[in-house]
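Predict the 3D structure for this chain.
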Amino acid sequence: MASDQQPWHVLVFGASGAIGKTICDSASAKDWTVVGVARTPGEAEPAEQSRRVSYDPFQGADLPSVLGEATRPFDAVVWAQGANLTDSVYDVEVDAHLELYKANCLYVLISLRQLLDAGLLSPEGARLCVISSIWQERARQTKLSYTMTKAAVGGLVRSAAVDLARDGHLINAVLPGALDTPMTYANLSPTQLGVIEGATLFNRLSSADTVADLVTFLCSKQNNSLSGQSIAVDLGFSNVRLV
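Done. Predicted structure below.
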């Protein structure tokens, strides 16, 4: 855990994406030191991140080597990386399905194992958070592989919460619904957006800032009891049926 002399130290995977970037901004606003991780070195380093490294576990990268010997243990780690895919039982392609599992679930498992093996999680107990999706626990049309891999993330978080407790580590998942981000507007038609916005009486999309605020709470010293939870940020969309 961070001392009075050292700011809270957080590692953010997927730091170049809309959610990851917003989480980095929120952490930086709290004067935390942020190490952002991207899969490729060509992406520009935002000012809000103290440092940017490139890491791809499926290209044989060793995370401790990428981070460097001088890296001190992390007080918090966030996984905001991931991929999406449109398919169904009628047209699923096995290779594409496996690639999505690797991106959404196995990436978390491999990098977490490397952090544990290298002693790079705070010995006083780290706070870990995985960005998943409301479709982890729900289903929609033509999202077979995405729903299955996000459901696997839920299993990972629940199981890891049990095992990591012996070392004092907490792990949770945050499940965003459709967010007010450029990616949402690029991937959904105006009709689909209207359906989602109108599914609750809020008549709007959830905010990426709210996701980031929840993540930074779960990853802060203030969280000393929440673990193994999957918390939706969707304005109640998952539970509402307007009649």
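The beta strands are 9-13, 33-38, 51-54, 76-79, 127-131, 170-176, 230-233.
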